[in-house]
Amino acid sequence: IKAVDICAAAGRNATLLNSTLHVDSLLIANEILENQIHTLQHNIVRWGYPNVVNTNNDPSAFHNLPGYFDLILLDAPSSGAGFVQNEHNTQVEAPLDHIAMFSEGQRHILTSCQESLKTNGYLIYTTCSSSKEENEGILDWLIDSFHFESITIPMNQHCDIKQSLSEKHQATGYRFNSDEDHGDCFFIAVLKKKSMQHT
């Protein structure tokens, strides 16, 4: 398996992902921010797996590898809407223009890298936001723009994860809601790419 973590700093998701991959797999842990690449490299080296390559590229660089990856993980930069400040246990309400800015950035990253995912490859998309514009809205946009299909993941009914559906395509996402567990907001979805062609 060939996989890439597009926004990998500081390495938490990359190391977790790599622990599930076969030892002969290749994982590229990429970080666009130069001031975070050293922390990422340090953590990857400490993990001790030799099959990880660190890169410091803009996501658009992966456009040069069409159909190369079996799996793309994007923990997208997000507004943090709904993030709970533990000190006061209050939610942060992100301004609408702030949410719109991050949503546009998420679409830019996905547009830049999606061509490097092979047909029938998987995209894992996550944010630390409760905003529908950054979560379910992105799923509908991916399905409209790049022929992705939503994948439903079996969940333990006893865990505090709520399934959500996008408005247009009923694409499945999963929310860890801060207003229920007094923690940080988290959203995750898995999509499968059905076509290399942009509509």
Give keywords:
199 residues; nine-stranded mixed beta sheet; single chain; 5 helices; 11 strands; two-stranded antiparallel ribbon; alpha/beta
Short description:
The chain is α/β, with parallel strands linked by helices and 199 residues long. It is built from five helices and eleven strands; from the N terminus they run E-H-E-H-E-E-E-E-H-E-H-E-E-E-H-E.
Quote the beta fraction.
25-35%
The helix content is 25-40%
Count of alpha/pi helices = 5
Low-confidence stretches: none
Rg, Cα atoms, Å? 17 Å
Number of strands: 11
Shape: globular
Q: What is the H-and-E element order?
A: EHEHEEEEHEHEEEHE
Distance between the termini: 27 Å
The largest sheet, given as strand count, sense and whether it forms a barrel, is: 9 strands, mixed
Look at the helices and sheets and give the structural class. alpha/beta
Question: Can you walk me through this structure?
Answer:
The chain is 27% helix and 28% strand. Strand 1 (2-5), helix 1 (12-18) and strand 2 form a beta-alpha-beta unit. Strands 1, 2, 3, 4, 7, 8, 9, 10 and 11 form a nine-stranded mixed beta sheet that branches. Strands 5-6 form a two-stranded antiparallel ribbon. By secondary structure, the protein is α/β, with parallel strands linked by helices. It is globular. The chain has helices at residues 12-18, 34-47, 96-113, 136-146, 178-181; strands at 2-5, 26-30, 52-55, 69-75, 84-85, 90-91, 117-127, 148-151, 162-165, 172-176, 186-193. The protein contains five helices and eleven strands. The mean pLDDT is 88.
